[in-house]
């Protein structure tokens, strides 16, 4: 059965171009032109991924996310304009899984959808990965060892914890707050400096060129994203 | 009330030495209950003559000691004068007569009106009646108005003689000094001639005069002579003088003593006046220096308040009228919770006359209020809460008014230059709007034309080869991206220009910010040589990551645009004292000579027409760097090509690499086997 995607978007043209592209990529598309219709569809039909536009005429994006999260863990990918960084972060912290900035290419969108589907599959099956591998980097999650191009890399406990949190969310953005909370604890959510310093250390140990990272990517103003193996 | 006119100098109605059509007169108000009556009389007289008139109060050191009743009466009189259409004015000085004469000269008065009463305040303060004094020196018409019997405030008269506590202490000191000298003289008298005793007393008087004010010094001189007479002149223990030559000695001693005390007191007074004047001049000069350096209104006010607080050792506030004309606190500590304070402030602003603590007007409040700026047109009110008892207000008032005037003028100047700047900005904005419209319409239309053309080709030509189709689709995609960049730059610029940018500053790693900029430029960097030279020990910098990323993008984009393919681009970032410096250097043709500063202007293009874009990129860079407190500059490299450099200030509290980092909360992560789910 084809995975079903719910698109909540008021702009006809964006809906039209996604209607043209997503079905050809093996997805079934449900469309909603406003927030209420979207919520009604999400509640009445099983969907695998929700694509949610942030500028809906009737409901705030964050309101829709809260309502959906009351009954469902379905991945939500937020579509937003470029200058809405704060709104993006708020929606991500409120439970959205990922975001895409308009204008976006179909390639990018498909990659995000694939990541979301893989993660929700893993969620359902409750299967713990023992290895994580992307590019030259290989992490043995049982033995807690990290290799780069076959050579072992030594990480401090904090660096390792940061890396495992990113691995757990591989392919999707993790906001600064989420990372600080998961690695350092809830009282450190405003200490962005710690995060920046440890990300720098991780990049120096894992990346070929830390100024042009290939794995540990920056989402400016939002957070970090570890490249997913399938990207 | 009957009006007795004593036009001693000149016949009434023909003022001396003036061709003025309209007479100007001033009524000099004493701080007594008679003042309101004098105002009414002056009003009647001025109305009869069709004259312009002033209600003049004089601030003197003596007046500061007057009782509240007298001040209250004076205040009422001034308010009455303002109601009756007179101008409220004030003269201050040590000497009432001279202060009035100076005022008369400055305001080209034709007549002076003074009150005369049997027991009024004026009389007690002068040896000669004031009117006579004025008449003799002014050459003006002086009109003496009688004041009703019994009215002059007894309180005023009494308090005029009530010496201050300090003065009482000085009299005590004078008595004690003479007693001490007497004791010393008594002890050494067996070995001392009478002349020696007299000299000892003279010495004592001289020493006392050097420290005491005039009155106590004179008392010391007299007491000394009396003590010599009583103790050392036969008959002893009596004021009787047995031999006439002793009497002569005593007379000489008295004369010398009085001369010593008088001269010493005068020279000390003069020295004090000179010191005061010097301090005033220095304070005025200092303030004008400081004010001329203040860049904006806030700094100016803060500078003025700090300066006045230093000079007067007082708590200083500035009140300025808002758009509705109501006075509001503009600088300094807020007013106490007392409705009278605000009332006095309004009164001062309205009647352009100092009032409040220590003055004759509304002294019940805690602070002294003076108008700010030129007396005819005050721009606000200055509030001074003086620490000590406000007896010295009359002394500091001339300086205070001078300084207040300076501050007011500086404020006015600032306001005018702000208006001029605003007008300039308005003109500039208008010009920019025009340039923007023409430039944007061109730059938006070009990609739109390409997109529309390519799309219509795809729609209407079914027989296209696959390669051509792909090319057209790529063109559409590229042009759309370009359009997106352009719109983004425009929005960014207008956001920056509007001044509504809220900096989202946090500690960031410049390498990371650069990294995400490079990520966005990925496609354009294909096939270009970019060398990164980043100091590995760069500290974190407090910045808005998205905005600084925009700076990197625009600078690199600019370098890519203006330097030929195959030529290297270098990006360097290093630390220098107090800041981080970032340089983007290219090996292109460099900047046109003299255009080093111009390149940051909006819509500037080094080679118009050759490159696409509206010339906003560098201008955006500069705006962003400047709101971060950094500098942006461009130069030509000696080896060819241009270099763009910007700095970001470093603060002392920048977090260092990994040191002082807290460990995660809870147990160390390696204690339990890790499972991500």
Please describe the topology of this protein:
The complex is a heterodimer of chains A (231) and B (677).
Chain A: E1 4-8, H1 12-21, E2 28-32, H2 35-44, E3 49-53, H3 61-71, E4 76-80, H4 85-93, E5 98-101, H5 106-125, E6 131-134, E7 137-140, E8 145-148, E9 151-153, H6 157-168, E10 173-175, H7 176-183, H8 192-206, E11 216-219, E12 223-226
Parallel strand pairs in A: 1-2, 1-3, 3-4, 4-5
Antiparallel strand pairs in A: 6-7, 7-8, 8-9, 10-12, 11-12
Helix pairs in contact in A: 2-3, 6-8
Chain B: E1 24-29, H1 35-49, E2 52-59, H2 68-83, E3 87-92, H3 96-106, E4 111-116, H4 121-125, H5 130-138, E5 141-146, H6 154-161, H7 165-188, H8 194-211, H9 214-232, H10 244-293, H11 297-312, E6 315-321, E7 327-331, H12 339-351, E8 355-356, E9 368-372, E10 380-385, H13 393-460, H14 466-498, E11 506-508, H15 510-520, H16 522-525, E12 530-534, E13 541-543, H17 545-562, E14 569-576, E15 579-586, H18 617-627, E16 632-636, E17 642-649
Parallel strand pairs in B: 1-2, 1-4, 2-3, 4-5, 12-14
Antiparallel strand pairs in B: 6-7, 6-10, 8-9, 9-10, 11-13, 14-15, 15-17, 16-17
How would you describe the overall organization of this protein?
The complex is a heterodimer of chains A (231) and B (677). By secondary structure, chain A is an alpha/beta fold. Chain A folds into two domains: 122 residues, Response regulator (Rossmann fold), CATH 3.40.50.2300; 96 residues, Orthogonal Bundle (Arc Repressor Mutant, subunit A), CATH 1.10.10.10. Chain A is built from eight helices and twelve strands. In chain A, the strands form three sheets. Chain A has a five-stranded parallel beta sheet, with helices on both faces. In chain A, strands 6-7-8-9 form a four-stranded antiparallel beta sheet, with no helix packed on it. The model of chain A has no long low-confidence stretch (mean pLDDT 89). Chain B is α/β, with parallel strands linked by helices. Chain B folds into five domains: 138 residues, Rossmann fold (3-Layer(aba) Sandwich), CATH 3.40.50; 107 residues, no CATH class; 131 residues, GAF domain (Beta-Lactamase, 2-Layer Sandwich); 76 residues, Helix Hairpins (Orthogonal Bundle); 148 residues, Histidine kinase-like ATPase, C-terminal domain (Heat Shock Protein 90, 2-Layer Sandwich). Chain B has 18 helices and 17 strands. In chain B, the strands form four sheets. Chain B has a five-stranded parallel beta sheet, with helices on both faces. A five-stranded antiparallel beta sheet of chain B has the order 7-6-10-9-8, with helices on both faces. Chain B has a five-stranded mixed beta sheet with strand order 12-14-15-17-16. In chain B, a hairpin with a 5-residue loop joins strand 16 and strand 17. In chain B, helix 13 runs antiparallel to helix 14. Chain B is elongated and about 145 Å long. Chain B starts with 23 loop residues before the first strand and ends in a 28-residue tail after the last strand. Classes of the chains: A alpha/beta (231), B alpha/beta (677). At the A-B interface, helix 6, helix 8 and strand 11 of A face helix 14, strand 11, helix 15 and helix 17 of B.
């Amino acid at each position: 059965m084809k995975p079903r995607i719910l698109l909540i978007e008021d702009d006809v043209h964006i809906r039209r171009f996604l209607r043209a592209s997503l079905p050809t990529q093996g997805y079934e598309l449900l469309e909603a032109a406003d927030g209420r219709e979207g919520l009604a569809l999400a509640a009445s039909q099983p969907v695998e991924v929700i694509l949610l536009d942030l500028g809906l005429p009737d409901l705030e994006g964050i309101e829709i996310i809260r309502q959906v999260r009351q009954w469902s863990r379905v991945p939500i990918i937020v579509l937003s304009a470029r200058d809405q960084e704060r709104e993006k972060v708020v929606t991500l912290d409120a439970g959205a899984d990922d975001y895409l900035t308009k204008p976006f290419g179909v390639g990018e969108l498909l990659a995000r959808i694939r990541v979301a589907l893989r993660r929700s599959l893993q969620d359902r099956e409750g299967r713990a990965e023992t290895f994580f591998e992307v590019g030259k980097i290989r992490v043995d999650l049982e033995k807690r060892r990290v290799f780069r191009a076959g050579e072992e890399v030594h990480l401090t406990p904090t660096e390792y914890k940061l890396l495992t949190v990113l691995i757990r969310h591989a392919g999707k953005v993790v906001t600064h707050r989420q990372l600080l909370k998961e690695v350092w604890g809830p009282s450190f959510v405003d200490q962005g400096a710690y995060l920046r310093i440890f990300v720098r250390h991780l990049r120096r140990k894992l990346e070929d060129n830390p100024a042009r990272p290939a794995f540990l990517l920056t989402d400016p103003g939002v957070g970090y994203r570890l490249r997913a193996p399938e990207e | 009330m009957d009006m007795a006119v004593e036009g001693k100098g000149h016949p009434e109605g023909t003022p001396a030495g003036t061709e003025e059509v309209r007479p100007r007169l001033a009524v000099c108000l004493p701080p007594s209950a008679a003042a309101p009556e004098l105002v009414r009389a002056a009003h009647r007289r001025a109305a009869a003559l069709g004259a312009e008139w002033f209600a003049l109060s004089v601030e003197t050191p003596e007046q500061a000691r007057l009782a509240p009743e007298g001040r209250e009466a004076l205040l009422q009189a001034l308010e009455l004068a303002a109601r009756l259409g007179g101008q409220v004015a004030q003269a201050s000085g040590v000497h009432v007569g001279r202060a009035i004469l100076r005022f008369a000269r400055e305001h080209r008065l034709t007549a002076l009106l003074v009150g005369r009463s049997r027991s009024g305040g004026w009389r007690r303060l002068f040896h000669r009646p004031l009117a006579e004094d004025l008449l003799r020196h002014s050459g003006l018409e002086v009109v003496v108005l009688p004041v009703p019997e019994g009215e002059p405030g007894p309180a005023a008269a009494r308090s005029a003689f009530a010496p201050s506590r300090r003065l009482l202490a000085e009299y005590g000191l004078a008595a004690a000094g003479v007693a001490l000298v007497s004791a010393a003289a008594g002890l050494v008298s067996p070995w001392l001639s009478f002349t020696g005793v007299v000299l000892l007393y003279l010495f004592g008087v001289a020493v006392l005069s050097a420290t005491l004010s005039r009155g106590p010094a004179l008392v010391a001189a007299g007491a000394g002579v009396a003590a010599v007479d009583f103790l050392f002149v036969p008959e002893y223990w009596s004021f009787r003088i047995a031999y006439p030559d002793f009497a002569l000695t005593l007379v000489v001693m008295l004369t010398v003593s009085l001369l010593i005390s008088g001269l010493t007191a005068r020279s000390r007074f003069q020295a004090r006046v000179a010191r005061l004047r010097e301090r005033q001049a220095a304070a005025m000069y200092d303030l004008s220096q400081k004010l001329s350096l203040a860049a904006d209104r806030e700094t100016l006010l803060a500078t003025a308040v700090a300066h006045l607080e230093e000079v007067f050792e007082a708590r200083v506030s500035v009140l300025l009228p808002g758009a509705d004309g109501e006075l509001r606190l503009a600088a300094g500590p807020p007013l106490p919770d007392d409705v009278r304070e605000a009332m006095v402030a309004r009164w001062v602003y309205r009647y352009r006359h100092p009032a409040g603590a220590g003055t004759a007007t509304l002294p019940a409040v805690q602070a002294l209020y003076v108008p700010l700026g030129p007396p005819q047109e005050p721009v606000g009110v200055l509030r001074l809460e003086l620490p000590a008892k406000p007896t010295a207000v009359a002394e500091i008032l001339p300086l205070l008014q001078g300084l207040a005037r300076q501050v007011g003028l500086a404020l006015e100047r600032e306001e005018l230059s702000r208006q001029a700047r605003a007008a300039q900005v308005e003109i500039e904005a208008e010009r920019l709007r025009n340039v923007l419209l023409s430039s944007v319409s061109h730059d938006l239309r070009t990609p739109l034309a390409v997109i529309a053309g390519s799309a219509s080709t795809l729609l209407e030509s079914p027989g296209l080869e696959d390669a051509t189709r792909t090319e057209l689709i790529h063109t559409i995609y590229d042009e759309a991206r370009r359009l997106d960049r352009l719109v983004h730059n425009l929005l960014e610029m207008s956001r920056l220009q509007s001044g509504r940018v809220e900096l989202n500053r946090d500690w960031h790693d410049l390498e990371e910010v650069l990294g995400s900029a490079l990520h966005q430029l990925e496609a354009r960097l294909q096939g270009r040589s970019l060398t990164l030279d980043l100091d590995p020990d760069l500290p974190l910098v407090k910045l808005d990551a998205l905005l600084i990323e925009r700076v990197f993008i625009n600078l690199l984009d600019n370098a890519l645009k203006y330097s030929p393919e195959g030529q290297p681009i270098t990006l360097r970032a290093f630390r220098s004292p107090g800041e981080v410096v970032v340089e983007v250097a290219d090996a292109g043709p460099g900047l046109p000579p003299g255009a080093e500063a111009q390149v940051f202007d909006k819509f500037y293009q080094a080679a118009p027409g050759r490159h696409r874009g509206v010339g906003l990129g560098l201008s955006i860079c500069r705006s962003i760097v400047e709101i971060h407190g950094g500098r942006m500059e461009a130069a030509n490299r000696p080896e060819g090509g241009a270099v763009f450099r910007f700095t970001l200030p470093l603060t002392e509290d920048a977090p260092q690499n990994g040191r002082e980092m807290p460990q995660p909360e809870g147990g160390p992560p390696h204690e339990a086997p890790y499972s991500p789910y």
